[in-house]
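For this section, I looked closely at a protein sequence along with its fold in token form, which I now present.
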Amino acid sequence: MIECRELTRHFDGRPVVEHVELDVARGELLVLIGASGSGKTTLLKMLNRLIEPSSGTIRIDGEDHRLAEPHLLRRRIGYGAQRAGLLPHLDVATNVGLTPRLLGWSRERIDARVDALLERVRLDPATYRTRDVTGLSGGEQQRVSLGRALAAEPPLLLLDEPFGALDPVTRDALQSELQSLRAELDLTVVFVTHDMSEALLLGDRIAFLEAGRIARVGTPAELLREPGAGGIDEFLRAPRRQAERIEGLLSETSE
């Protein structure tokens, strides 16, 4: 579904993403993870031309993505922004249904799709359809953003920390819902997170970025078995330490 070759992006002469070689298979969920400033969000945004590469090529479903007009390319790719990115002057239903409306869907089809997606992201349509998005909590805005990303039934979904502002119960439910949607819709997903536990639980493969380069790519099992050098080892130790602390607390309560 995605082929990146020698992909590079400079800002003010400084490399932020450098010589990235990456393939994403159709139907795969690839997680991009790394420390702040490692280039993961820049790499994600280059895939739908929100940021243009300085050099290198990207092919989406076999087509050089530079051949498509940026706004037409983005209508075929679902995108969930890090800070929701909702249009503040539009209500919830209009935000979710924005891309289908641009694609010329009928009003009836849009309304049905909006209601179905609001239910799937755990927002009651009767309560939230006409709500002003500026009055929503950060977690509610992120759920609306996820619904909008899925609205036009795209084959490719780009998600930038979509569950970061959610409470643990809702986060767990939406992680499960995302996996169900992947299977149901045959979605290809590129998912940015800074949470290694989330990466291990969701990803078919994980790409670890350091200083704009991909330092390691592998399945969760491969990375746990052989982390390799660099910062990924520290990232992998964090969920293990947390699990050990929780086990210790559980042991104390059972004594």
